[in-house]
TrEMBL record:
Residues 14-248 form the Pyridoxamine kinase/Phosphomethylpyrimidine kinase domain. Pathway: Cofactor biosynthesis; thiamine diphosphate biosynthesis. Pfam families: Phos_pyr_kin (PF08543). GO terms for molecular function: hydroxymethylpyrimidine kinase activity; phosphomethylpyrimidine kinase activity. GO terms for cellular component: cytosol. It comes from the Bacteria. This is hydroxymethylpyrimidine kinase. InterPro entries: HMP/HMP-P_kinase_dom, PM/HMP-P_kinase-1, Ribokinase-like. It comes from Lacinutrix neustonica. Keywords: Kinase, Transferase. One of its GO terms (biological process) is thiamine biosynthetic process. Its EC number is 2.7.1.49.
Amino acid sequence: MDTQQYILTIAGFDPSGGAGLTADIKTFQAFGLYGLSVCTAVTVQNDIDFKAAYWVGLEVILQQIDTLFERFTIEVVKIGIVKNSEALVSILEQLYQYNRTIKVVLDPVLKASAGYDFHSEDDLGVLDTILERIYLITPNYEEIQSLYADKSIKETIAHISSKTKLYLKGGHRENSLGLDELYYNKTMQLSMMPSETVVFPKHGSGCVLSSALASTILLGYPIEAAALQSKKYIEQFLSSNKTLLGDHFPLSSAYKTSK
């Protein structure tokens, strides 16, 4: 009997291995999970320079999803870069055809850390529909300001958290750098200050955090405990070395959060 737990990432390929599919797979493995992957784009980048993205056709993306679900039981999916909202809606529809209770963690990559724009404002028009179909969204502080141009950050947080769970990453805050917050039902449920661990900037840290959240959710952690566990994992990743490419290894048992 196959007792392996499978988890899926739908994201882009980064040749440097720091972000996208490769980073997701490394994170999944650190949590003891077998990572499956569907490629949405082939990017031309390294850890400091983003040059281009060559998008995979939607039909090919859906064929990849079909092939994996024909073979594996998948309960949780992390989604990273997707060309536009139309493609994202089609992907979500395909996932729910296979598993009506699937949990989707969406990392809304609106701009690569090197400055490449992935989405235009027009692509965000169906965001409400998307939010209602996902389990968790993980924008950083810059991304959340771009999601609803006509709303303040406070209004945007309330709006999003009325529709789904929101993990607001604090790495781009001007004040309280590293303060992460978890919201749902329009209310902040958890505020996570950074520890005193010395950390260093890392390429792909947003991908790693969202993959850690997807992993802990699959492992059965309640959302608050999943958030705390993932916060500890990303700090371990950020402190792993002084380069822009972090190391992945299982979270030390001394720092694990109980379920």
